[in-house]
Every structure is written in structure tokens, then in C-alpha cells.
Amino acid sequence: MNQAVTAEKATAVPFKDMANAIRALAMDGVEKAKSGHPGMPMGMADAAAVLFTKFMRIDPADPAWPDRDRFVLSAGHGSMLIYALHYLLGYDDMPIEQLKNFRQLGSRTAGHPEYGHAKGIETTTGPLGQGISTAVGMALAERLLNARFGDDLVDHYTYVIAGDGCLQEGISHEAIDLAGHLKLGKLIVLWDDNSISIDGATSLSTSMDQLKRFEAAGWNVARVDGHNEAELTAAIEKARAHSDKPWLIACKTVIGFGAPTRAGTAKAHGEALGAEEIAGARQKLGWAHEPFVIPEPILSQWREVSRKGASAHAEWSKRHDASALAKKFDKQMSGAVPEAQEALKALIAQHVAEKPKLATRKASEVALAAINGATELTLGGSADLTHSNLTITKGMESVKPGSFGGRYMHYGIREHGMAAAMNGVALHGGFVPYGGTFLVFSDYMRGAIRLSALMGVRVIYVLTHDSIGLGEDGPTHQPVETVASLRAIPNLLVFRPADAVETAEAWAVALDSLHTPSVMALTRQALQPLRVTPSENLTAKGAYVLREPEGGRDVTLLATGSEVEIALAAADLLAAQGKKAAVVSMPCWELFEAQSPEYRKSVLGSAPRVGVEAALRFGWDRWIGDNGAFVGMAGFGASAPAPELYKHFGITAEAVAEAAKKLIG
Length: 665
Ligand SMILES: Cc1ncc(C[n+]2csc(CCOP(=O)(O)OP(=O)(O)O)c2C)c(N)n1
Ligand SMILES: [Mg+2]
What we know:
By secondary structure, the chain is of the alpha/beta class. 45% of the residues lie in helices and 13% in strands. The strands form five sheets. A six-stranded parallel β-sheet has the order 10-9-11-12-14-13, sandwiched between helices. The chain is elongated.
């Protein structure tokens, strides 16, 4: 009976007041900050109100409930929409003070929604196009888990609000093509079809028929008046009922809806409206309340959403507790892979004993075989370079359209879409995604790699063909600046292992790094075994002394990856001439930087240093110091067999020994 009373009370608040609460908070938040984007939340307030009051299944008291619906505000500039929603829904970390401190230092209400800053923010958005593409990964993870655990445990939707900008960005094409192909039917995108972006009308720059585009990519499409509650409701209902394909619902809206002079214009996009315009909007919308004040009946009806969500959550918990799969499900969602770590330990011992000569891409494949054999949590994939990246291992089935029992993704030739999807998979939880392409093409996915790092998610990039060592494909395919540019991204571990042991160690660290993405920069060409005695995981230290000469050092040779064996050969040449060279392998600069100053000093020593890497010098001065030398690339590579290229560009043991001798004097 209580429920009936609540429901009756709920219907007492007109829908337009529910939506206007969002509009008012968005206007007021942006006005107080004198910064931000009021137009999008005002335009999409009706769609958001319909979505959240009638459909979203979330429990703000437990924002990590695994079977919650996911919501992605792909048009991240409209961040006040999500903050307003979270206040209205009653998230305990989003009191009204947070909205009053929009965009201020230390507040949760950052300029764009930031994953981890506030509960319920499923992903960081703001770089247009990333949200919708990340959502594809979330919707994929949902289907993968559903295939394993059934509707009782996993059966939720992924909703996206995307703007014109998100759909114009190239990454959206990769994402929608992938989602349409796979038939991710529980993905529902609401497009804020307001025909306005920053420069003015979208007709300035596009003639695209988005509905036809999405249809061509295998989506269901619908068109509604984005200010009409009934049309919005019917469209979302239909989309939920027909989950054969993903859905695009084009919501025709007026940007800045309600603002008397700015509505429908680019002036509503990205600045505070000003007191006069806001007063006019309040009048036009029929919203007589003070700034940041939401009357109790409206607030109470909004909070009903959370109460409904909590009871859906409770029902799910009952199903979960009664399920024979509960334990397995919890383990899957925990993301813990202790069995894989054990398997890697055994593999490393085997490598030390057997001393295989392997390309590090091959060593990575061997490591993956151990990992994938030990845990079911990994989701492999490649952007159409599976047999170059060596990312598939025995027994891995491909994920196919409408068929999600496998755990290997053919992402297609869509590097950026792959990286964003992997972010979505990691954020959703349940899988450890890794995906491959050539190292040089990491530039094609840099936007998403940067977000992996900013959000702190465990995504592992398998980037093979890591230098001129790839040979004949030539300079278009030979990275020279790429490793340096990846090292420049904060909170990203860039591994360039030197042999099979270091490669397995790098995988162990990457799997252990729950809040840091990793890059594996791997060779095409075979490398000598270097780590031939048992030891702790030395790659975890970032750099370590591989060879220490007796009686002190004349010089220290620092190298990574394929150049470590060159440094060792140079040390031999120097020894023959009575010069004492230490050799340091530096598989991961970021981890070395994190060691104690004492450890770093003990590794680097006080003798002059030579850096060796088949890449540009950029960044190396940090390690070789003012009086150091560098042997590597000075520009782009060339097309020829790899051994010739190493000679041609002077990356040889002789050249390293020569550089060392000059330093020793
Ligand atoms: C990758 C990227 N490029 C550029 C921007 C800067 N930017 C922010 S919003 C915007 C216009 C977006 O237009 P639309 O999605 O239609 O948003 P609306 O004006 O309708 O709110 C631009 C260019 C960005 N945030 N991300
Ligand atoms: Mg727009």
C-alpha cells in the first residue's frame, strides 16, 4: 500500500518539472562557475528525464552493482547534466554544494565527467567520440558475461547520450561499425540532434544522413521529437524490446531549450547564460525557484528512481545468491588472475632453464598461452594483425555477431575503436582486455590510450614491430618517435623487453597493475636469451644491472629491448680492449623512475653512460646525463632487411664501443 501511495504522489509532479530541474541546475551551475556548457543539458533534459525516471536501473547506494545499466555521457561537455542527475538521484557524494562548486579545484564536479571522481560516472568523457566508442566495449562486456552467466546474473543496457560532435568524430565510425556487426542489441544511443556545434549550424561542415549511416552499419534507427515525453518513452521502450541490433534514437532538440534569446543557437553551447537570460529562461520554463533549489516533491520523485533501482538490485541479489554460478561470477568480476601469475612464474623458470631465442612478440605469445590457459578472464584481440601480433592462443574462440561465447576479438582495422572498446570492457569489469596492432599505429589510437591512462584502467596494448628491426616494410611501419611519445603519457607503463624472460615478467607486472594500462613494445626479429639465471622479477624494477664488470666500471651501457644484446656485445668488445663496461637493461622507464634514488643510483653508477635504443634520442638525456652518448636513430628508417638497417644506421656493437671509448677518453 505504501508503494501505491508513493506512486500516486509521484504522478503529482508534472514531467516538465522533472526535466526543468535538470535545466535549472545546469544553468545555475554554469552561471556560478562562469564557465561550462549549459546548452546540451538544457536541450537533452527531457530525454535524460525520460531515460532515468522510466528506464535506468541503477542503485546509487551501491554504484558498483554489476548488473546495473550503464550510462555514458559521450557529449562530456554537458557534464552538468550528469551532476544534476546525480544530485537529483541522491548519490551521497553529490550534494548540492558539489554543483555550486562546479569546475572548481578539489570538487567532484570537474569540467568534464571524470571516472573515479564521483560515484556512478562510468567513464571519463570530453574528448568527443570516446564515450560512444567506450560504450561499445561496455555493451560487448555485457554480452560476453551474459553468454557465460545467463540473464539471471547479467542482463543490462548500455545507454549513451551523444552529440553531433561525437558522431562526426572518426572514432565513432569504427565504433558503430563494430557494434552493428556484432549486433550489440543492448546498446541504445540517444543522439542530441540539435544541428548546432561550436562554430554554428552543423550544416557548415556536414551533410551526413546519420540515420542512413547507422542503418548501413547494422543499427536500428528511430527519430523522435527530443522534447516529447511520449515519443521518447515509446522509442526507448521499442529499442529495449527489439534488441536484435543496437539502436540510434535521433532526438531532435533545441540546444539551450528555454533560454529566451540563445536557444537554438551556438551561443547556448559553451558559456554562462548571464543573469538576464537565466531570468528569462526561468520565466519561459515556468520555473520560479531560487538558484540551486529543487522543491521537495520534485526531489522526492527523482529519488523514487533510486528506490526502484535499489529494489531491482535486491531482486538481483536474491537471484545471485541462489545461483550455482555465483561464486564463479564473483571471481570473474573481481578481475583477479592469481592462476595466470602462477603460470607465468613457471614459464619464467622454464625460459631460464631452456634459454629460448625468440622474437619478443613470440615470447609474448608464449606468455599469453600460459596466461590464457590459466584464467578465463582475458579477452584477446587485434586490429586485423592477429598473426603478426601473435595475440591469439590455442583454444581461443572468436567472438562473432550475436554469439558471445568466445574470448578473442577481431576488432577489424580499427585501432582507435579497439582501444576505446578495450577501455569500455575494462571499465565494465569481468575481463582483462588486451589488443594488438603495430607499434607505429598506436598513434591511431592515442586518444583512447590517453584515456586508459587518465582513468587508470588495466588495458594491455600488444604493440609489435617495434623498430627498424621489422625491416623491409620500411619507414611507414618503423617507429622511431613512438616509444618516446608513449613514455610521455603519465600513468602508462611502456615495456620494451629484451628477451623471453623479460617479456613474461612484463606480462606479470601488467596483469598486476590494476590501475595502470601497459604497452608491450615487441620485436618482430628473434632476440638472444639474456636472463639465464633464476632471479626475482627484475622487469618490475624498471631497470637493472645485467652485467657488472669486476673491479668497477669505466662506462655504463644502458639499453632496451633488441638493443640490449648489442650493448652486451659492445661490452665484450670493450673488455677485449681492457675497458670495463656494465650493461643495464631498462625494460620500463616508468617503473625505474618509481624506484628509490639509492636503487637508481646503484644501477646507473657514476661512470659515463651510453644509451642504446633503435629509436630517437628524445627522453634519453634523463638517463645518460649531460656527458653521455646515445646510439640510435636520428630520423626515419628505411626499407631493407633488418641486419642491413642496423648497420646502415650505425646501431652496432662497434658503434656503441666506439661511443663508449670516446667518453672514457
Ligand atoms: C575530440 C574533441 N575535439 C574538439 C573538442 C572541443 N569541443 C567541445 S564541444 C564541441 C562541439 C560539439 O558539438 P556538439 O556535440 O553538437 O555539442 P552541442 O554544441 O550540441 O552541445 C567541440 C568542438 C572536444 N571536446 N573533443
Ligand atoms: Mg550539437
